[in-house]
Amino acid sequence: MQQLVNTALGGLTLGAVYAAFALALVLIFRSTRIVNFAQAPMAMVTTFIALTLIDAGYSYWIGFAAALLSGLVLGAVIERVIIRPVEDKPEINAVILTLGLFITLHALAAVIFGNRFRSFPAPFGLRGLEVGGTTIRLTTSGIFTIAAVATVMVLLLLLFRYTDVGLRMRASAYNPEVARLLGVRVGRMLTLGWALAAVVGSLSGLLIASGGLVHPGYMDSIVVYGFVAAVLGGLESPVGAVVGGLTLGLSLSFVSGYLGSELVALAALLILMLVLTLKPGGLFAVASARRV
Amino acid sequence: MKARLLAPVAGLLTATMVLAGCGAGGDRESDSGGEGGGASDVGVTEDTVTVGGHFPLTGVAAPGYSEIPTGAQAYFDYVNAAGGINGRQIEYIVKDDGYNPTNTSQVTNELVLQDEIFAMVGGLGTPTHSAVVDFLNSEGVPDLFVSSGSLQWGDDVESKPYTFGWQPDYEIEGKIIGQYIAENMPKAKVGLFLQDDDFGEDGEKGVRQYLDKQIVGVERYTSGNTDVGPQVAGLQAKGADLVIAFNTPSYTALTQLTSLALGYEPTWFYSNVGSDPQLVGSLLNRFSEGAVEGDNSSLNDVLTTEYIPGVDATDDPWVQLWQEVWDQEGEGGELTNYRIYGMSQAYAFVQALAAAGEDLTRDGLVEAVESFEDVTGPQLAPFRYSADSHMGISGMRVVELQGGKAEELTPVLVSDIGDAPIEEDSSDQASDAPPEGGIPDGS
């Protein structure tokens, strides 16, 4: 029983991180229509910026804020400098560019921050909470992770559904030509989309690093699982991304605990294949109008 | 024009002859001898001998392991500064394989065919070195002192006549750990936490010889998957109050963090590989409550094993020698256990070179190592090398970590693979000291 609870709680905490990463993917997909593979190394770089500050003696929260801020800047700069030149080309060009960016950022981080494992501090305690005499695998840091992801999800929902900016961002992504004719400054919206997505990505980087070990490759597995989570949710919906992330975290934790940790990657792939075959639009897809 | 053509043609001819020689499938008796004295084999000249090694200098396995070749290099420089061995300077070429077997094949090809090394020294890793061990043997390149405790480097001399293990294999480590627990903690409910490859398998085989009945649960982790929560929760659920772990150092940190979150407090017994207090301590100190920076107390009360004196044993004459070597020739930074590991291996290689004599050949080197019986060095227990076995160091002692220092719990215990008994070491190697000047002579 205790094992069941602990496996589930561990899966939920991990799922929250996948969800945060999936939210970043959803955000960028909704506002630019591309999938950003460089999201993980971008988050890794900003996490290392936070770690550098913390190691220099600043508090965790200063590092935290600096990472989010540098995420914002990094996202905007990458969009303006690297993605903008291929904006008019087919979407695949931009996607391939993000793959190139993945490798470049990795290599740069190894040169600048070094290749060794380093520990990253946690904002709150790492001891499990005590419930009725037994310790359960839910730490204060874990609760913070889940709360942070829930907040981001709500903010994104509000942004896309109820704000003017959100509407303009969606318009620029869906149909740049028409949006431009209607007076939307499409370029600016694309930059904003990248910047915001990078902030959410940085958050997921910080959340998974907290109370654990980081090295330039520590986000790599998150790319795969975050992507699966986003696809589960349909790549469009913030709620879908979070549900997808939590479902994936839970399933993988149970696979690892009861079937064997060597099957985790296989299980993720299986889930991805099943969803793409049975519900290609994701679990939360609305039936799309027939194209004629 | 003719003279310029000659060199490549000669090179081609030599290559053909080498290849032809290898057709015999490593039957080394048949092609030994017949060569003149002096500089007499690939990679050897009048005044140099070139050797190489593959190590993860970048990537996830780099922390710790990338320091091993820096230690070896420092010791070779130390020997070179004193005139080398038999008048030859040792040139050591280190290549980065990133702990990726595909890269290992490539860099080993470069080392053997392009840099023309005389021997491979200390090539690191089970999956990585497995990818090149057949190539090295078919080329007849001595493959000394593989940095891995897998059984396969020494238990089949016929198929791998040129390969030698170095550190105690994981099976005898498992046996020694198993016997210690069976004798001293017969009531313990034992859980096993194993890396899902040769490392965990060989260790488990050894442990099960002595405490099969005490084992209540076995969990395996896949290297690369950093979420070990489900595995640790599994051991907790089985009620294990003592966990024997065959894992790498970062997983030691991860299991400690996870058990903190789970409120799980068994006695931990980490195999030698995963227990470096300096490295793991540097990862964990940030998280341990009330720890003083740098005192490495985060692994206090952890049990582990030891087969060469570590950096904490500042009174040991070997460690004093390593400190002197590092101060004189090191590339900066602190002396670490990984650097000591590299130096200890380099010391054994220098012993082999010295024993192989002035007429240095690859087969001569192999024969020299096979007759290493009475050779002493930094290792606590003697080597097992013979014409029938290429297994390395024969034993270790059980220690408990306190404040980053190892406190002895048993004398040095020696054994061998299979059902060989465990005995107290009678060679007294653990209390010897290095020769005057720190360089072995040829005897």
UniProtKB/TrEMBL annotation, chain B:
Keywords noted in UniProt: Signal
Q: Which residues form the Leucine-binding protein domain?
A: 48-404
Q: Which PROSITE patterns match?
A: PROKAR_LIPOPROTEIN (PS51257)
**InterPro entries (alphabetical):** Leu-bd (IPR028081), Peripla_BP_I (IPR028082)
Q: What is this protein called?
A: ABC transporter substrate-binding protein
So what family is this one in? Answer: Belongs to the leucine-binding protein family.
Q: Where is this region: Disordered?
A: 25-45, 416-443
Ranges annotated as spanning the membrane: none
Using the record, list the residue span of the signal peptide; answer none if the entry has no such feature.
1-20
Out of the domains of life, which is the source?
Bacteria
